[in-house]
Amino acid sequence: MSALVPFVDFKAHVAALRGELDAATARVLDSGWFILGPEGEAFERELAQALGARDAVAVGNGTDAIHLALRARGVGPGDEVVTTSISAAFSALAIQQAGARPVFVDVDPKTLNIDPEAAARAVTPRTKALLPVHLYGHSADMDPLLELARERGIALVEDACQAHGARYRGRPVGTLAGEQGLGALSFYPTKNLGAFGDGGAILVNDPGTAALLRQLRNGGQRNRYHHERFGVNTRLDELQAALLRVGLAHLAAWNERRRALAAFYTSELAGSGVEPLREQPYAHSVAHLYVVRHPRRDALVEALGRRGVSTLIHFPVPLHLQPAFAFLGGKPGDLPVAERATGEILSLPLYPELADEAARRVAFAVRAAAQEC
Ligand SMILES: Cc1ncc(COP(=O)(O)O)c(C=O)c1O
Fold first, then answer.
1. Model confidence over 227-243: pLDDT tens digits?
2. For ligand 1, is residue 347 a contact (CB within 6 Å)?
3. Cis status, amide bond into 187, omega within 30 of 0
4. What is the pLDDT of residues 336-356, one digit of tens each?
5. Going by CA atoms, what residue is nearest to atom 10 of ligand 1?
6. What does each C-alpha distance from 247 to 21, 132, 187, 254, 366 come to in angstroms?
7. Do 308 and 3 touch, CB atoms closer than 8 A?
8. Residue 44 near residue 66, CB atoms below 8 Å
9. What secondary structure letter does DSSP report for 236?
10. What is the torsion angle, in degrees rounded to the nearest 10, for the CA atoms of residue 249, residue 253, residue 255 and residue 259?
């Protein structure tokens, strides 16, 4: 059997950046400043600039980025937030954390992102916000959602945790709603911009909201020991901020490498029997994950495993059927597009350090395995 192709390769990632990471680490250790200092401030500035927002507020993880963005838009107990049924469960847990109730809707079969028409049907007088997720690095179809939010006077928070640098009709995701726009990012290590631990940020275009978010992430303090509101403790530390600044300088090149690998897979897998999700005309994807569909998914996963190709499933259970959300009353058959898709999808290895030769081996293995299944 040929060498294994891992799903991600953090050792190669660190090796490629080692000198820069060591220098950043030493800079923080020597500074003696570890929380809410100059590295975090510089990272926020550089991140906002790189991703086309006016400001960015760094927090401890992506879940808190969503949770605080919702709270900053006034979402709380008794409110409903309309979101997709295919995402990391953390998207919906953040709604829960804000005290509100997730309302899961079905997805567009072309992208597996939230179906805007299903979202419109789910809006009630209790709906306070929409939470589309730009899944797999590919933006949701945002124009109808922006229109829906405007018409109904509800907030829109973009979960861009998987979509650093993605665009929708040429505009960067995260702040598509202009002054009102808020976009949540996660820097979980596997993300396009990954930390070496947890991290997150909120992209924001309005200075008042940025100030509010800076209070909320730091225990609700206006200034030291004066707590104006109930905040949480979710600060990005200086070490992670300094390491993220290293990665941020490479993000555009990494995204290009991801896109090139995705294009390679798509052309190599034509006619193979697996169906890749395709980039839509309105989107500029950053290929966070490369997802294909196959009716005998589990057999295909096994056949690929035998050929040394690691795969994962993002995500195997739609959120309305997760036991944690059973109290909302979701049942099989409610969201048929999402339910069918979650039984057919698998993600292939795709990361900037993946060598051309390894990508060729993956494509070859998929073609052979699909024939067998
Ligand atoms: C779409 C999406 N939303 C939210 C999250 C939560 O981010 P974190 O793990 O940083 O809390 C993640 C990642 O785990 C994600 O992929």
1. 999 999 999 999 999 99
2. no
3. no
4. 999 999 999 999 999 999 999
5. 62
6. 9, 26, 10, 9, 31
7. yes
8. no
9. P
10. 180
